[in-house]
Amino acid sequence: SKVTFHHDGGLAEVVEAEPGISLMRAAVHNGVRGIIGECGGQAMCATCHVYVREPHLDALPGMSEDEDEMLDCTVAPRDDRRSRLGCQIALGGDLDEIEVDVPAGQV
Ligand code: FES
């Protein structure tokens, strides 16, 4: 799966990820700036917060209650439509390609 991480200022990092891993893991494995994943993917830290770009919103998995609650604790403001936890987005399947904006801060 191809994942594009857009940063403030227009820089983007593109990574190739194995299907089945989460967007957070893909970021951490590739040293993508601004995605921390402190809790290891348990939807308990919100340091993997991303804003998913419009064309990919429909392909996202549904949101659990835990994720929904944790998204109220992000450092950067929550966007009702585009905010998701990267650790709860499994790549592959319908999500062969995704583009996200990385918040300016996670902690
Ligand atoms: Fe902690 Fe996603 S890694 S909430």
From TrEMBL:
Annotated GO CC locations: cytosol
One term of GO molecular function: electron transfer activity
Boundaries of every 2Fe-2S ferredoxin-type domain copy: 1-106
UniProt keyword annotations, A-Z: 2Fe-2S, Iron, Iron-sulfur, Metal-binding
Record keyword Iron-sulfur present: yes
Cofactor: [2Fe-2S] cluster
UniProt superkingdom: Bacteria
Keyword Metal-binding: yes
One example of a Gene Ontology biological process annotation: P450-containing electron transport chain
Family to which the UniProt record says this protein belongs: Belongs to the adrenodoxin/putidaredoxin family.
Name of protein: 2Fe-2S ferredoxin-type domain-containing protein
Lineage of the species this protein comes from: Bacteria, Bacillati, Actinomycetota, Actinomycetes, Pseudonocardiales
